[in-house]
Design brief:
This protein is an all-alpha fold. It contains 19 helices and no strands. The longest helix has 34 residues. It is globular, with a radius of gyration of 21 Å. It is a multi-pass membrane protein.
């Protein structure tokens, strides 16, 4: 406990406790940080990838459905985090237990680090294309990108907010400008609407890709931002603004650019359109805002897992990320495999927390500083495994939706059944 108190005093990032009421932020500040997080080049790359298999009308359709799904999850998680002022890592203590929380909060940053590496590598690849750096130069550029992006995460939420205020206007303007340029290149909006892909993709695959783009953040990382909300209304409004407007804008802009030049490699697309300076600004602001918040969230989760100072943890993550960029994960095939995997694995985690809070605890958690947590809750992990299995074996529906709904149903059912059995048997599983 002495270590935790010392960390809180020095960093004021509240890794191990709830955010005080007098430190909460307005809707505008929350939206700047969350939308900056959502405004990311990989969403544009997802749009470009969708253009390879869907018509533009179909892309709009899957974009709406996918982001509504994400919005529902984000809203529920935002309500929980804003009411309790807790990060995702601390929220998992209620449903997974103290030791179980360490595993749950370790898994999330492990996957989230993949996002950080993809984006840092994409930016390094982009810089290498501009300056014709070659293979060796590209490796240096990717490593440097991963390291430089970590500076804002080290400085905490205040620095990330300032970065968002500077970057978001540029991202919005340049994204729209890129789309207008794409429409001009193709000869008008009627050509965009009449576009037919060469290799048709299933609608369900497109929706899963949209969900995979932000399921991790909508289910987990958003809690690390919305814990600063002054009230649930601001948290909900901010989360929906980022997804329904921000993420949709990025995906559709990426799709338009890809349709215009028949290429889903976003850096190459922007350069082929003759948008050198705008593309540098867009890529830089786009990726930096997201990766800074990404690494910040990672540090909070891993601080919980390893009981380590947040800044020391960020240093370790930066070294891992720098090395990871050398695998060149910006390749579009790798990206879509990664997104579809996330789209199935992450929802049960959010479902367990949602069910625990809204169903088992009836929308109220005991004060974090007063509650006595169990060490382990094996039912949470059993639910996670069963939900994953169901998402793969059931022949109908979207796997992500299946796993989410399954976890929301299975966790409280198992908890109630085991609780009744323990009462009859004179045992309490919470003592395990």
């Amino acid at each position: 406990m002495a270590f935790k108190k010392d960390v809180e005093t020095n960093t004021k990032e509240y890794e191990f406790t709830s955010v005080p009421k007098d430190q909460r932020k307005s809707y505008t500040s929350l939206t700047i940080v969350w939308t900056g997080y959502v405004f990311v080049v990989t969403s544009m790359m997802t749009g470009g990838g969708l253009a390879a298999g869907l018509t533009f009308k179909e892309i709009v359709y899957v974009c709406i459905l996918g982001n509504i799904f994400l919005g529902i999850i984000a809203t529920l998680v935002s309500i929980i985090s804003s009411k309790n002022g807790l990060s995702f890592a601390l929220l998992t203590k209620y449903s997974f237990g103290t030791n179980g929380s360490r595993i749950a909060s370790f898994f999330v940053p492990f996957v989230n680090l993949g996002w950080y590496i993809i984006q840092a590598a994409t930016y390094g690849h982009f810089i290498a294309l501009i300056f014709n750096l070659g293979s060796f130069g590209e490796g240096i550029a990717m490593i440097a990108s991963a390291l430089v992006m970590g500076v804002f995460a080290l400085s905490g939420m205040k620095a990330i907010t300032i970065l968002g205020y500077v970057s978001i206007p540029a991202i919005v303007f340049l994204s729209i400008a890129t789309s207008v340029k794409a429409i001009q290149i193709t000869g008008g909006i009627e050509h965009i609407l009449s576009y037919r892909p060469s290799a048709p993709m299933a609608i369900s695959t497109g929706i899963t890709a949209i969900i995979g783009t932000w399921i991790l953040s909508s289910a987990t990382c958003i809690a690390d931002i919305m814990r600063y909300a002054k009230n649930t209304r601001d948290a909900i409004a901010s989360s929906l603004t980022g997804l329904l407007l921000g993420n949709s804008l990025m995906i559709l802009c990426g799709a338009l650019a890809a349709i215009a030049v028949d290429n889903s490699d976003l850096p190459a697309v922007l350069l082929s359109m003759g948008l050198l300076i705008p593309s540098i600004i867009l890529m830089t602001t786009n990726i930096f805002t997201t990766n800074a918040a990404n690494l910040y969230s990672n540090s909070l989760n891993l601080s919980n897992s390893f009981n380590m100072d947040r800044k020391k943890m960020i240093t370790i993550l930066l070294i891992i990320a720098a090395i990871g960029t050398l695998t060149k994960p910006y390749e579009i095939n790798f990206l879509f495999t990664f997104l579809n995997t996330l789209g199935n694995i992450i929802p049960p985690l959010a479902g367990i927390i949602i069910a625990d809070y809204f169903i088992l605890n009836k929308g109220h958690y005991e004060d974090f500083n007063k509650v006595t947590f169990k060490n382990w809750n094996p039912l949470a992990f059993i639910t996670w495994i069963i939900s994953l299995i169901l998402s793969f074996v059931l022949p109908f529906g979207l796997p992500a939706l299946t796993s989410l709904i399954s976890s929301i149903i299975i966790f409280p059912v198992l908890t109630i059944i085991v609780s009744k059995l323990n009462v009859k048997g004179g045992k309490n599983y919470e003592e395990i």
